[in-house]
Amino acid sequence: MRREGIRAARTKQVRVPPDPAHDHPVAPNRLTRNFVVAALDRVWLADITQLMTKDGVLYVAVVMDLCSRMIVGWVTRVQRDGWLTMAAVEMAIGWRRPPPELTHHPDQGGQYACPDYVAVIARHGILASMSPPGSPIDNAPMESFIKTFKVEHVYENDLATREETEAGIAEYIQSFYNCRRRHSAPGYLSPAECEKQLRKPS
């Protein structure tokens, strides 16, 4: 590696404030760490991460198709609230038009348990599932994406203004992660290649 000028990407420890307590009802864990899904738009994972730009904090809400690892929805916002998560899942719904009884699996944060968010997914026939508190392994593929996103994009770039950061996130997800980055889970295909294979007529 030294001879070829190759260096390992390094992670950084970033302190993220915990979600405030809430009294909204939460969904059961329907996924139960079953991360093998054979069809598209059967299970979507979701989460939020925090970035620090020169303009201040920026939150990113992401929705992933578990089968292909395609990022099907993402939104940035300066506030970590239900509007952030609703915009991300509505983007995914508008793009994918999922069949009924899709399982949607985030954590038990208030942004996912609030009545407005619950109403959005219920209106589209989506089944709610939630990881138990303090158990990131129950949403492991999404946690893996967030780590990859930060190592490959966030930590390798100078996050300037929020507008520039948002443009960079869209470029990373749309042009690189979804279309070119290969994953072991779908047979070392990119999400786009995986979906192309799955959509071929049998």
Please describe the topology of this protein.
Elements: E1 43-53, E2 56-65, E3 71-77, H1 82-96, E4 103-105, H2 110-113, H3 115-123, E5 127-128, H4 140-154, H5 162-177, H6 191-199
Parallel strand pairs: 1-4, 4-5
Antiparallel strand pairs: 1-2, 2-3
Helix pairs in contact: 1-3
Task: Please name the defining characteristics of this protein.
6 helices; five-stranded mixed sheet; 16% strand; alpha/beta; 202 residues; globular
3D architecture notes:
The protein is of the alpha/beta class. It has one domain: Ribonuclease H-like superfamily/Ribonuclease H (Nucleotidyltransferase, domain 5). It has 6 helices and 5 strands. Helix 1 (about 80-95) runs parallel beside helix 3. The radius of gyration is 17 Å and the shape is globular. The mean pLDDT is about 90.
Structural class: alpha/beta
Q: How do the SSEs run, as a string of H and E?
A: EEEHEHHEHHH
Q: What proportion strand?
A: 15-25%
Provide the CATH top-level class.
Alpha Beta
The CATH homologous superfamily: Ribonuclease H-like superfamily/Ribonuclease H
Q: Could you give a short account of the major beta sheet?
A: 5 strands, mixed
Helix content: 25-40%
Rounded radius of gyration (Å): 17 Å
CATH architecture: 2-Layer Sandwich
Domain count, please report it: 1
CA-based shape? globular
In short:
This protein has 202 residues and is an alpha/beta fold. The chain is built from six helices and five strands, in the order βββαβααβααα.
